[in-house]
Specification:
Blueprint: H1 5-15, H2 26-34, E1 40-41, E2 47-48, E3 53-55, E4 62-68, E5 70-71, E6 91-94, E7 98-105, H3 113-128, E8 133-135, E9 140-142, H4 144-156
Parallel strand pairs: 1-3
Antiparallel strand pairs: 2-5, 3-4, 4-7, 6-7, 8-9
Helix pairs in contact: 1-2, 1-3, 3-4
């Protein structure tokens, strides 16, 4: 069963050491998870931008990407449900302007946990960027090391590109 938004945020917290300085709140984690969504469920009478990805309300195992922006019709497109009729690149009109293109098999997980972890570490790095070395008579702390550590952790979760 696929992870929910809240479950994904819970799994993200230890991956990015959310409780350690600079901390990330549960609201921060949910916002980051929202930015790592692979697609949403298609909705009728809804505006979509080029690049938006959806799965049909009645799942058929496929993911669709908007190739022309517009507002969806009052009823969903007649998405192909037979495996022999489904293929990457097939297009579906939806409303007056909106055009969907089959983008391949739908992901099992709608939230990309690895991408969310990378973005969480980058956010922590951003928060730590202004830190500098501080010291008093007994202690010296190199806070810029926190920034560097966060950047190094973000590279561990960098998406792998295949060209």
């Amino acid at each position: 069963m696929a992870r929910t938004r809240a479950q994904t945020a819970e799994q993200l917290a230890p991956l990015c050491s959310a409780e350690l300085y600079p901390t990330l709140s549960s609201d921060d984690l949910l916002r980051i998870v929202d930015g790592a969504v692979r697609g949403s469920t298609h909705a009728v009478s809804t505006a979509y931008a080029v690049g938006d990805r959806v799965v049909p309300a009645t799942p058929n195992g496929r993911l669709y990407r908007a190739v022309r922006a517009g507002t969806s019709a009052a009823t969903a497109p007649d998405w192909a449900t037979e495996p022999g009729l489904q293929y990457t690149g097939q297009r579906y009109s939806d409303g007056d302007d909106l055009l969907w293109e089959d983008d391949g098999p739908a992901p099992i997980e709608m939230y990309d946990l690895k991408l969310a972890a990378q973005r969480a570490w980058l956010e922590k790095a951003g928060r730590a960027a202004a830190d500098m070395a501080v010291s008093d008579q007994n202690k010296s702390v190199q806070l810029q090391q926190v920034h560097q550590h966060c950047l190094e952790m973000a590279t561990r979760y960098r998406p792998m590109g295949i060209w």
